[in-house]
Amino acid sequence: MGLVTQTPASANPYGVVLHTVIAPSGSELDLLTQEEALRYEQVRDRYLKDNAFPNVSDLQDLDRLLVFEIMIYRWQLWLTRGFDYQHSRVDEGAIKSFIKEYSTEVRLLKLALGIDKATRDKEKGESLADYVAKLLERAKVFGYHRNRQYERSVTAFWQLRSMIMTYDRCDAEERTHLDLSPETIIDWFRDNVIKDWDETEESFRKNQSMWIRDM
Predict the structure, then answer these.
(1) Residues 1, 45 contacting (CB under 8 angstroms)
(2) d(Cα 161, Cα 173) in Å, to the nearest integer?
(3) Quick count: other Cβ atoms within 10 Å of Cβ 49?
């Protein structure tokens, strides 16, 4: 869960302390209460954990969905209490109308994003052949990844071996001329092997996390 920050009263004309959260697309959103902000972040994090949203447009639609859901949460709270956050009486008929309208928007957005119950049930009902085909395709991709890891490991080993053996054969003057020392060998390994390895692994893990969500 991300950190909820507060917008000071001086930042808005009504003197209300707002609570800032970060939307899935990265934009900021100000909410009226700490409870709203915490609920927003809980629901946001669960959506992002349970689903894959590879496109920016999907994240923007998720932004809208979360706004609609937090508004419904706010109105339902007001409707239950009979008054708003300023302890003013609410128009129950108007609020019920708002909730109905926004609930329709929520349903349509979930359908568009493929996270509605009907879509989830349909995906669960995929055939065994489709499921096995996906597993085989991902296994092949994983196999390619392992082959690249092996190739890079062997290449890095022979390069490191060559540098160490050259260091052992040379005297101090030759090592200085070649800029070859334990420090430069370690720096080379850190910058050219570890960094490249970690970047490749991080990229693969991101793709793999989407597979796991789909399964």
Answers:
(1) yes
(2) 21
(3) 9
Angle at 93 between CA 90 and CA 96, to 5 degrees: 95
Query: If residue 179 lies in a helix (H) or strand (E), which one and from where to where?
Result: none
Phi, psi angle pair for 204, to nearest 5°: -65, -40
Instruction: Tell how strand 18-22 and strand 28-31 pair up.
Output: antiparallel
Residue-level pLDDT at 17:
83
Dist. CA 115–CA 128, nearest whole Å = 22
Q: How many C-beta atoms surround the C-beta of residue 199 within 10 A?
A: 10
Q: What was the pLDDT predicted at 31?
A: 94
Contact 79, 52 (CB under 8 A): no
Does residue 73 or residue 200 have the better pLDDT? 73
Distance of CA 186 to the CA centre of its chain: 34
Q: Where are the domains of the chain?
A: 5-124, 128-214
**What is the distance between the alpha carbons of residues 100 and 81, in angstroms, rounded to a whole number?**
18
Token pair of 53 as six digits: 């949203």
Taking residues 5-21, what's their average pLDDT?
A: 66
**Average confidence (pLDDT) over 126-143:** 72
**Cα 158 to Cα 163: distance, rounded to the nearest angstrom:** 9
- Between helix 195-214 and helix 128-169 the angle, nearest 10°, is 170
